[in-house]
Each structure stands twice: as C-alpha cells, then as structure tokens.
Design a protein that fits this description.
Elements lengths: L2 E6 L7 H14 L4 E6 L1 H4 L6 H18 L7 E4 L5 H10 L4 H5 L2 H7 L8 H4 L1 H10 L5 E3 L5 H18 L8 E3 L34 H10 L18 H14 L3 H8 L4 H27 L2 H30 L5
Parallel strand pairs: 1-2, 2-3, 4-5
Helix pairs in contact: 3-13, 4-8, 4-14, 8-9, 10-13, 11-12, 11-13
Bound molecules: tryptophanyl-5'AMP.
Length: 332
C-alpha cells in the first residue's frame, strides 16, 4: 500500500518555493494515493513564535493547501497538535536515536548558529518529531523539496533501528519523493540561498498571499546581472539569479529550462521579467484570492482541521498501540 504524508510549518506566509517544491506535487498525488497533509505547528514551536501569529498561520496554511487545490474531503488535512500521538511517538523514537545522528543534521547547525548552548532541546530533536510524523501513519512516500532529504533519511534510519532493536517491522521505510521542475527555488535577492519563510527580506520571496502589484514589484527588484538573457542553459551556469528566474518561469509554464532559454535567448532581461511577472500573477492571484476568501471564515477552517485530526487519530492510535506492544509498554 502507498500512503503519502507531508507537512509544512505554520511560520509566516507560504511562498513560491513551498508551492513548487511541495504543494503542487501533492495536488497531483492526491488523486492517486491515500494522502495526509499536516500543518506541523509543534515543529514551528522549535523557534520562538508569537502565539497569536502561530494560530493565524496554522489556519492560513490549511487555507493555502485548499486554495492550491488539495481536497480536504478526499485527503486528510490536519494540525499536528490535534493528534497527541505525534509527541508520544517522538518520545519513543527519541529513546532509540543516537545523538551522533542528530549531530549530523545540517538544519540544526544552521538554525542554532554559533550559540549552540542557547538552542532549545526541541530544535535539536526536531528530526525525531518529523520521523514520528511520518512513521505514525506508516507512510511510504514523503513528497518534499530537496532541503528535507536529510530529515527523511533519518526517519528511514530510525525505522530501521526500531526493527533491529525490537525485531518487528512496525514501520515501513519511507521514500522521499523529490520531483518536479523546481525542487529548490532560490531567493530573489541571492541566487545561492534558498527561498525561505524565515529570510528577513520579504523581497527575497514571492508569497502565495501577494497581490499582483506586490508580485510585479518583487520580480522587478529581483537581483540579476547586466547581461542579456543567456543563449544556452550552460551559459547561465554561474548566473545563479538568472538561472533561478528561468527555473521559476519553466516550472510555472510547464516548459523545460532549455525551452525558456530558447524563447528569450539574447533578449533584454527587462522583457523576460515582465513576462515572468504576468506568469506569476496568472498562477498566484487565484490562489491568494481563494486563500483570502477561506480566511474570512476561520470557523470553517477549524471544522476541517478538527475532522482531519479525528481521521488522522483513527490511523495513528493503532500504530502507536503496535509500537507500545513492540517496546513492552503496558496497555490497559
Ligand atoms: P518547511 O515548512 O520548511 O517547507 C515545506 C515544504 O516546502 C519545501 N520547500 C521548498 N521547496 C523548493 N524550494 C524552496 N525554496 C523550498 N522551501 C521549502 C520543503 O522542502 C517542504 O517540502 N521539516 C519540514 C516540515 C515537516 C515535514 C514533516 C515534512 C515536519 N514533519 C513530515 C514532511 C513530512 C519543513 O520544515 O518544511
């Protein structure tokens, strides 16, 4: 059986990277497989959050999933804190995860920075909670952007360690699904940095909440170089910013990078940027309009999340029970 699980942290607005690297792929997968899409609010807490903003962002991510085309009836959409088994399984898996595995995680190193002693325990054990998210549903496939690969490999390692230690294959080894034309969308300000929710400059990303005017401004201001558009894909190997914009254009228009380069070869960047703006507006404006419409009725979003959490719980509870039995925990 194939079961899909993926999630996004409710921190800030979602952006084009989240859309192209993850959500757009989910929209295609939802019709083929049983799919569970989570809003991972417990993960968001691993760095300081304003409580009111977290609550709002949790609803906004749910609304974004739906606005992008995820069907909440066919699939399960829920908030992580609504299913307590996530935290319980994370504890259990933490007991079999060597520190050495966590010490290798690049995200912790990046987020903790130099002041490691001040970083929270939650940030350190973040990948164990993520493994719990996936394994709690016996998910077989995890569609994500490239930056999550290491986390999913760790989830596989933990599932393997569990099987070795307890002699029971409770958890299938989850496969990362990293596909599509834009598995790593870069910042609009720096073509060598990932587009990220946490970048302090809002000009570094196109949010799925941006209106047409904001998108136009961000694309116009996107960093580029003074050269005209490249004649070949090879010619933009070190023109990181231009290569990123070409990649975005290709992903949004379902064209290969070669086709985009051929269309604009030798032309001025300003013309390309104008077309890219139109393309972004065409694809994103309907999402942001639908998202705003959904956000006007937070009660309806809460009802969807409650129903999703109930459905998720119904899958999670027996898996946790199986884990208890394998580990020798009393269930009375
Ligand atoms: P998060 O919230 O950082 O990102 C959500 C999804 O968007 C993808 N993504 C990108 N893809 C392409 N280009 C980018 N610039 C870009 N930025 C983000 C991410 O790869 C991800 O697929 N740890 C996860 C959340 C999580 C999770 C899980 C995911 C928690 N538990 C279980 C899958 C399964 C995260 O922080 O994603």
């Amino acid at each position: 059986m194939t079961r899909i699980f993926s999630g996004i942290q409710p921190t800030h607005h979602l952006h084009l990277g989240n859309y192209l690297g993850a959500i757009r792929n989910w929209v295609g997968l939802q019709h083929q497989y049983e799919s569970i899409f989570c809003i991972v609010d417990l993960h968001a807490l691993t760095v300081p959050q304003d409580p009111a903003a977290l609550l709002r962002a949790t609803r906004e991510v749910a609304a974004t999933y739906i606005a992008c085309g995820i069907d909440p009836v066919k699939n399960i959409i829920f908030h992580q804190s609504g299913v307590q088994e996530h935290a319980m399984l994370a504890w259990l898996l933490g007991t079999i995860t060597p520190l050495g595995w966590l010490n290798r995680m690049t995200q912790f190193k990046e987020k903790a920075g130099k002041a490691r002693d001040n970083a929270g325990l939650g940030l350190y054990s973040y990948p164990v909670l993520m493994a719990a998210d996936i394994l709690l549903y016996k998910a077989t496939h995890v569609p994500v952007g490239e930056d999550q690969k290491q986390h999913i490999e760790l989830a596989r390692d933990i599932a393997g360690a569990f099987a070795r230690q307890f002699g029971k294959e409770v958890f299938p080894l989850p496969e990362p699904q990293i596909f599509g034309a834009a598995t790593r969308v870069m910042s609009l300000r720096d073509g060598q940095k990932k587009m990220s929710k946490s970048d302090e400059s809002d000009y570094s990303r196109i949010n799925l909440t941006d209106d047409a005017e904001t998108i136009a401004l961000k694309v116009r201001k996107a960093k580029t170089d003074p050269e005209p558009m490249p004649e070949t894909v090879e010619a933009m190997a070190e023109r990181y910013e231009v290569a990123n914009l070409v990649g975005i254009y290709g992903a949004l228009s379902d064209m290969t990078r070669e086709q985009v380069v051929a269309r604009y070869a030798g032309q001025q960047l300003s013309g390309f940027k104008k077309d890219l703006t139109d393309l972004c507006v065409e694809k994103i404006a309907p999402i942001s309009a639908e998202l705003n419409r959904l956000m006007a009725a937070p009660g309806d979003i809460d009802a969807i999340l409650k129903k999703g959490a109930d459905r998720a719980s119904a899958i999670a509870k027996p898996v946790l029970a199986e884990t208890y039995d394998a580990m020798g925990l009393l269930r009375v």
